[in-house]
Structures are given as structure tokens and as C-alpha cells.
UniProtKB/TrEMBL annotation:
Main location: membrane
Record flagged with keyword GTP-binding: no
InterPro entries: Bact_transf, EPS_sugar_tfrase, Undecaprenyl-P_gluc_Ptfrase
Subcellular location: Membrane
Transmembrane segments: 31-53, 65-87, 99-121, 271-291
UniProt organism field: Paraburkholderia caribensis
Membrane topology, from the record: Multi-pass membrane protein
UniProt-listed NCBIfam families: EPS_sugtrans, WcaJ_sugtrans
Protein known as: Undecaprenyl-phosphate glucose phosphotransferase
The entry's keywords: Membrane, Transferase, Transmembrane, Transmembrane helix
Keyword Membrane part of the UniProt annotation: yes
Residue ranges of domain Bacterial sugar transferase in the record: 265-448
MF terms (GO), sorted A to Z: undecaprenyl-phosphate glucose phosphotransferase activity
Family (UniProt): Belongs to the bacterial sugar transferase family.
Length: 456
């Protein structure tokens, strides 16, 4: 529960410090250039990459306040050093350096205060009525290392496991510093010693379980016994228990409901797309001229793609093929040495520069900066019956780049195995999405470059 709060607090500390220091240095707003704006945007995203590298966001159960503060400060200073180095070649560096110095100092103090306050929260929460409920977990043949992660994902950290009971274990052990016992008497002793009033049974849905032994053991104790369904071996069901419009439901397959969690993504998409379009406007103009001179036809190529929940939209790309290269109603993937591709188009496709106009789709809300890559509608019709969970990719907004692309799956996907691998990466992204995962994918896209052996 505290990790998302910690991330939000860190972002507020860093962004608030950026604004305060900007007000101190750039009293005349006309002195603040678009280069400064891009540096500021990078300065808001870069720290969370260094935070991940230094493992700032560890489970609070295993972390100390002092260690957390030190790691956050080291990661912050490292990010600012990188930012200073990047900003040096650009003009008007003196006021920018003063801004970064003030930003570093103010955020340094804010992060110390914020992290100390976050680590003081558990003590306060224990005395409040909405504190996370401490529970005992009954997991027949289920006490695996990822058990607690799955429980936290499904219960939104509303429950804190204190003991795990698995009668099929050969001996007592521990999972993430939580004791795992194999005897009912041991479970009963722990529950009474810790004054636990909740038992959660981890059970695959639609499979009956026997709970008579629990009833018998705790018949005289005021203990609540509940069942938490967990779908094992499914690529779709990592979060199956939910409240939908006030009604408790078991999600077997459903569009991810993240509510306010996606607000940072929506805001970031628009701001990032606007900054990119402004920054690369000369490049867009140069490419437009090159495309126009390369062969007769329009500058932009528009093609129907499916967006979130299958809604069809028109995607923008620079034209890379000769006009009329494709027959109406058919789409053939470009291959190496494809005669339909112009000389300029071959360069654009190999560097992915033909994708840049899709930032206009992001501004329109049809796409996200990061998400599963949308395919031509004709390709969707072909693959949807060949690749399992293929259409689930469209439960969220498609993206310009994605988890599959930074892992090497971009460009042509002739073999079914390649498309299956791409879908697996897309499914992983949908299930494990966070705002910071988006930042990581953007950073990897930039770091790895826009070229690839399978893009032509």
C-alpha cells in the first residue's frame, strides 16, 4: 500500500521543487526557453529510472527508513548529474545550471522530509480504523515465492499476511519473511498469539475445497473465513477479484479497471507528445519534403487500425511505399528488399521515423506513447484465430512503442511464433502496467535507438 504513496510523494517532491526553483531563477518567464522545458521534462522522468536501478522502491516490510532515504538521495543526485551533463551543450547554460542547482538542493531536502513521513505512516495507520487487516493465509500446495505478490495484486494491499498454512509442505519454512507452517496446531497458536481474526483460503476458481477442518478448529473463535480465488496457469487472470460499480465480481476476462491510476499516463501522453512534436518539427518538415520528392503521392499514409476495445481509428504514418502499391482490401507486410518501398521510405522504415506522425494520434487520444503496437485490421482478422489472447491486446490503448518492441519484437512478423512472442510481451505489459514501466520503455526505446534488423 505504501509503495504507490511513496512514488506519488517522490514525484510531488521532485516536480514541486522544479517549479519552485524555476520561479527563483527565471523570474522573467521569457528567459525560460523550450530547451529548458525539455530539460525539465527529462528531469521529471530520469530520476525514476535511477530509483529503479538503485532499488529505492522495496517492500516496506524489508526496508528501513534510513536506507530508503539514502538510496533515494543517491539516485536523485545521480539523475541530476546526468541531467546537467546532457544540458551543457545547449545555449544559455548559465541560468539553466543555476536552476538545476536550486532544483537539486530543494528536492534533496523535500525527499528527506517526504520519505521520513512515508515511513512514519505505518505507525499511524495501525491506530486508524482503515489500517490493512492482518490475515492468515491457507494455501494448499500454493506457498510459492510469488504467492504474496499475487495476493497483494488481487487485494490491493488491503490485507497483510502474517502466517501461511500449507499442509503439503515437508517442513516449516518462510516466504518473504512470513512464517509458513504445515500443522494446524501451529497455525492455531500463531493466530491466537497474533490475535488474527481473518483466514483467507487461496483456491483456484471453480474447484471445490474442503473447509470442515478449519470450521472445526476455529468453531469457538471469532474468526472470519474467506476464499480468495486465484487462477493458476492463466496468462490473463492476475487480478480476478474486484468491485465493479459497487458489485463484487470474479473477473475471468475483463478490460483492466485502473481508474485514477491511469490519470498520470493520460496527462503524460499529451504533454510528452506535444513536447516531441514541437521539438522535432524541423525533422517532420524535412521528412515531408523528402517523401514528396521521392515519388508521386501524398506525404502521409493513413491506415485503419483498432484501438482500445476494438474501436477503429485512422493511424498516421509517413508514406514509405509507391502510391497504389497495395491492392484495395489487402495488406501485405513489407519484406527485406520489398520493391514497393521507395528509397526514402526504406530509410524511414529502418529508423522508424515513419512512425513519428503517430504523436498526432496520441494528441487526439486514439493512441498512447507506450502500449501494444496496433496492427492493420486485415492482420487482426488473420491472427485473431491463430494466436491465443491476440485480441486482448486491444483492451488498452495501442502505443507508438511497447514492451514487445524494446525486447526485439518489432517489424515483420511472418512466423506465427514471432507473433505469439509479441503477444506474450504485450500481455505482460497489460498485467504489470505502471506509469514507471512506461518511463522505462521510453528510455529503452531511446537508448536502443530506432533501428532494428527486422524493420524494413
Amino acid at each position: 500500500m505504501l509503495t504507490p504513496i511513496s512514488k506519488a510523494a517522490d514525484f510531488l517532491c521532485i516536480s514541486g521543487s522544479a517549479y519552485i526553483s524555476k520561479s527563483i531563477v527565471f523570474r522573467d518567464s521569457s528567459m525560460f526557453t523550450h530547451i529548458d522545458g525539455l530539460v525539465g521534462l527529462l528531469g521529471l522522468t530520469l530520476p525514476f529510472l535511477t530509483f529503479r536501478l538503485t532499488k529505492v522502491y522495496q517492500p516496506f516490510r524489508n526496508d528501513s527508513g534510513f536506507g530508503s532515504v539514502i538510496r533515494a538521495l543517491v539516485a536523485w543526485l545521480f539523475a541530476q548529474l546526468i541531467l546537467v551533463a546532457i544540458s551543457q551543450p545547449y545555449p544559455d547554460v548559465d541560468p539553466r545550471n543555476r536552476w538545476l542547482l536550486w532544483w537539486t538542493a530543494i528536492a534533496f531536502c523535500a525527499l528527506v522530509v517526504g520519505r521520513c513521513a512515508i515511513h512514519a505512516l505505518p505507525t499511524m495507520l495501525r491506530s486508524w480504523r482503515f489500517a490493512p487487516t492482518r490475515v492468515a493465509i491457507v494455501a494448499p500446495r500454493g506457498a510459492k515465492p510469488d504467492l504474496l505478490a499475487r495476493i497483494a495484486l488481487q487485494t490491493r494491499n488491503a490485507f497483510v499476511p502474517q502466517v501461511i498454512f500449507d499442509p503439503f509442505l515437508p517442513s516449516n519454512t518462510a516466504v518473504d519473511q512470513i512464517p509458513v507452517v504445515r500443522e494446524m496446531n501451529a497455525l492455531k497458536q500463531v493466530m491466537r498469539a497474533e490475535k488474527l481474526r481473518e483466514i483467507w483460503i487461496i483456491n483456484p476458481p471453480f474447484q471445490p475445497i474442503s473447509v470442515e477442518h478449519l470450521f472445526e478448529t476455529f468453531r469457538n473463535d471469532f474468526v472470519n473465513i474467506r476464499v480468495l480465488p486465484v487462477l493458476e496457469g492463466s496468462t490473463l487472470a492476475e487480478s480476478v477479484v474486484d468491485i465493479y460499480r459497487g458489485v463484487p465480481v470474479l473477473n475471468v476476462i475483463a478490460t483492466p479497471e485502473r481508474g485514477w491510476d491511469t490519470l498520470p499516463k493520460e496527462i503524460f501522453d499529451r504533454i510528452f507528445a506535444l513536447f516531441v512534436l514541437l521539438a522535432i518539427s524541423p525533422i517532420l518538415l524535412a521528412i515531408s519534403v523528402a517523401v514528396k520528392l521521392s515519388s508521386p503521392g501524398p506525404i502521409f499514409f493513413r491506415q485503419y487500425r483498432k484501438g482500445m476495445n476494438g474501436n477503429v481509428f485512422s493511424i498516421y504514418k509517413f508514406r514509405t511505399m509507391y502510391q497504389g502499391a497495395d491492392k484495395p482490401g489487402t495488406v501485405v507486410q513489407a519484406r527485406k528488399g520489398d520493391a514497393r518501398v521507395t528509397r526514402v521510405g526504406r530509410i524511414l522504415r529502418s529508423t522508424s521515423l515513419d512512425e513519428l506522425p503517430q504523436f498526432f494520434n496520441v494528441m487526439k487520444g486514439e493512441m498512447s506513447v507506450v502500449g501494444p503496437r496496433p496492427h492493420a485490421v486485415e492482420h487482426d482478422e488473420y491472427y485473431k484465430n491463430l494466436v491465443q489472447h491476440y485480441m486482448f491486446r486491444y483492451r488498452i490503448k495501442p502505443g507508438i512503442t511497447g514492451w514487445a518492441q524494446v525486447n526485439g519484437y518489432r517489424g515483420e512478423t511472418v512466423e506465427i511464433e514471432k507473433m505469439e512472442a509479441r503477444v506474450r510481451f504485450d500481455m505482460h505489459y497489460i498485467q504489470h502496467w505502471t506509469f514507471w514501466l512506461d518511463i522505462k520503455i521510453i528510455a529503452l526505446t531511446v537508448a536502443n535507438g530506432f533501428t532494428g534488423s527486422s524493420a524494413y
